[in-house]
Amino acid sequence: MHRAHAGDRQRNETGIGICLVGDFEKTPPTTKQLSAVMRLVKTLQTHYGISPQQTIGHDDVKATKCPGKHFPLAKVAGRKTTDPRDR
After folding, report:
1. For position 13, what pLDDT does the model report?
2. Lowest CB count within 10 Å: 13, 20, 70, 85, which one?
3. Which pLDDT does position 2 carry in this prediction?
4. pLDDT per residue of the chain (87 residues) written in tens, 0 to 9
5. What values do phi and psi take at 84, rounded to 5?
6. CA 11 to CA 9: how far, in whole Å?
7. Contact indicator for 23, 68 with CB cutoff of 8 Å
8. Computed from CA positions of residues 43, 19, 59, 68, in that sequence, does the dihedral angle turn out positive or negative?
9. CB of 25 closer than 8 Å to CB of 64
10. What is the pTM of this model?
11. Cα(11)–Cα(17) distance, rounded to whole angstroms?
């Protein structure tokens, strides 16, 4: 089955997409959303052997503002280095 979320066929077939409700260009995720998504990402990373560097945003594979300027992707991904999107 072909999926279209990422805009890239290979990533659609092999990637995992996570969706949070909200416009993170305008506001950051809620504390509960952030806590839940961090637990989910850590669980998926551990189960599937996904590194923090392989944990990327929608805008890394498609021309979009998603996940948004207020979404702390580096923190969610568990990266040790500073990422400009980690606000």
Report:
1. 81
2. 13
3. 56
4. 556 667 777 787 888 989 999 999 999 999 999 999 999 999 999 999 999 999 999 998 888 999 999 999 999 999 986 655 554
5. -60, -20
6. 6
7. yes
8. negative
9. no
10. 0.84
11. 9
Radius of gyration of the chain (CA): 13
Whose tokens are 């990373």? That residue is 45
CA distances from 20 to 1, 29, 49 (A): 23, 8, 23
Q: Phi-psi category of 49—alpha, beta or left, where left has phi over 0 and alpha has psi -120 to 50? A: left
Indicate if the alpha-carbon torsion angle 14, 11, 21, 57 is positive or negative: positive
Q: According to DSSP H, which parts of 1-87 are helical?
A: 9-14, 31-48, 73-77
Residue matched to tokens 């568990």: 78
- What is the Cβ-side half-sphere exposure of residue 74, based on CA atoms within 13 angstroms? 10
